[in-house]
Amino acid sequence: MAKAAAGCHFCQIVAGAAPAAVVFEDGVSLGFLDQKPVFPGHTLLIPKDHHETLAELPRALLEPLFANAQLLARAVEQALAAEGTFVAINNRVSQSVPHLHAHIVPRRKGDGLRGFFWPRQKYADAGEMEKIRKSIQVTVERLRSDG
Question: Distance between CA atoms of 112 and 18, rounded to whole angstroms?
Answer without folding.
Answer: 32
